[in-house]
Amino acid sequence: MSGEADRRVGELRRLIEDANYRYYVLDDPTVPDAEYDRWLRELQALEAAHPEWLTPDSPTQRVGAGPLKDFSQVAHDVPMLSLNNAFSEGEVVAFDRRVREGLEREGQVDYAVEPKFDGLAITLRYEHGVFVRGATRGDGYTGEDVSANLRTIHAIPMRLETPHPPALLEVRGEVLMLLRDFDKLNQDARNQGEKLFVNPRNAAAGSLRQLDPRITAKRRLHFFAYGIGGVVGVELPPTHSAVMDWLAALRLPVAKERRVVSGVNGLMGYFSELGEQRASLPFAIDGAVYKVNRLADQEKLGFVARAPRFAIAHKYPAQEELTVVEAIDVQVGRTGVLTPVARLKPVFVGGVTVTNATLHNEDEVRRKDVRVGDTVIVRRAGDVIPEVVGILPRDPQKPLPSPFAMPTSCPECGAPVLRLEGESAARCTNGLACPAQRKQALLHFAARRAMDIEGLGDKLVDQLVDHGQVATPADLYSLNIEQIAGLERMAQKSAENLLAGIKASRHRPLARFIFALGIRQVGEQTARDLARHFGNLGALMAADREALLQVPDVGPVVAASITAFFRESHNQAVIEALRLAQAWVDGEALPVSPGRFAGLTFVLTGTLPNLTRDQAKARIEAEGGKVAGSVSGKTDFVVAGADPGSKLAKAAQLNIRILDETAFSQLFDQGERPT
Ligand code: IVH
Predict the structure, then answer these.
(1) pLDDT reading at 593 higher than 60
(2) N or C: which terminal CB in the chain sees fewer CB atoms within 10 Å?
(3) Nearest to residue 149, comparing CAs of 122, 186, 172, 188?
(4) Which residues line ligand 1 (CB under 6 A)?
(5) SS3 for 659?
(6) Which segments of 505-555 does DSSP mark as H helices, in order?
(7) Pairing state between β 320-332 and 303-304
């Protein structure tokens, strides 16, 4: 060997593996990709010129051996067993009791605790510090040799970082796909119109069992070590946690989330702590694993059947379950978007019983090929809406159900359905004439973050729309007690409460009102920006594209949606009716305060004991309120003195608040806007 080139080969291999370690194990890259690529090419060139220098642990050997015909079988010297599961605190308590009894221990036992990775079990064999073979678990006694695929996993070191490697080390751990790589893989598959993987574990399993390692290399798998299957030539430290530290020092990836805790309280504390972290971990886990920390204690406890007595897997409620699709319905949303929804045989998943799951849109149903009668995987993770992730293979003996088709007319109103080129959403073209859209628009209008109409839920909205009492949000403000009390399950009291809720929703700040209108693309924040920028609704309605583009974060799409909304005559009419109903207050962003009574209408009747009519009027107007001559649905307060006349009777009939002079004066003392 020529000394210089030989030295360089060693140096390049070290540089490349260091970079791998920093990037894939520590997640802390220090070398630019271009530099890394140059090193790899230089090493490849040197090895090509000196094939005798090539070793299997060279980083050039990670990518790209040709495809295999099949995997050869590997017998595990030490079997790869499984863990017993615990699903409740009671089962954890029982596990800890068995451990203490087995060890004849009075006090608390120390446990090494770690995530239960949701991937596939793997064993890696290192001889004198060099990776020689890796295999799947198989039946626990015999697995498949997937060495070529494992070499493509950059987190797996091809050489252990130690001057004194053990003669033999069998590392046990889990191969998995990081969530970001899984998302990217499925995104690419979607773009290519290919079949999607149902979850990261299936994607990892499918990738590891590829006969062509070049495909595995593209899939970007990851690995975590969680123990050892055997060691020859070094003495192990006395605890599992110290063994894990040693593996980490050898540059094997181990979970950052591992700890040592004491007793059941320690276990349960870790379980909830890890549960809270779960949603933000970069990989999927399905529980926590508890292991008696002292290796001597582990040995004493030993195994029962095919599982250790010294360890247990404490599982979180499954986030995926199987169930059957009973029907596929199509729901119409506020903006007319049609969403296919799978009606499911009830199934307990992610901690709740799920009966519906979204299928997102037509393309998604096609891609997953979900049909009525199919057995499907339902997923509910955290607070995310349940979804159908995929179907199980159908029984070829049974007749094939017909594929889902998006209806061509709206299931709610019968109007034509339109799907624009390049859009995934199909929409009902009927706008607010469609009762479903109307209902959703009303619910949005009344929502807490919009006009906040207390007591107006979906059952009521259904009835109000179905009985023709309410078509637009403006109609809410002219509802009367008889109309409401006549509805199903509506007692006088709840009818009064609803009316009070509607009334209280008057004079909301402009931003809320804009949000409540349900203009497409205009969420809460944009509504606030628009209100601040324009100050009043008239200015917003009059704004053209250019004026709208001046508003922070408003781009061409949002601007187009806003101008289209206000151009629509139906919308103009509804807004005018809402204006008459005094649904909002303009000018919240104006420098001059509009006054606490802005938007409120008073009617004066009879003779007040101390104030003249003109004095009362002046006080109201000084606070921005209005004084009207007659009582109507738009009246907020009637101020009544002696000998009031018919206005008072009318006010009582319309359920309008009546004030005497004392109550009237108190409005001014409150310092708050009267309601
Ligand atoms: S220790 C004797 N630790 O869970 C078995 N297993 O049911 C010792 N797993 O097939 C296994 N994370 O693939 C252990 N931190 C962890 C684990 C873990 C995931 C898997 C493993 C095994 C299955 C056991």
Answers:
(1) no
(2) N
(3) 122
(4) 81-83, 114, 116-117, 121, 137, 174, 226-227, 289, 308, 313
(5) strand
(6) 510-516, 524-534, 537-542, 545-549
(7) unpaired
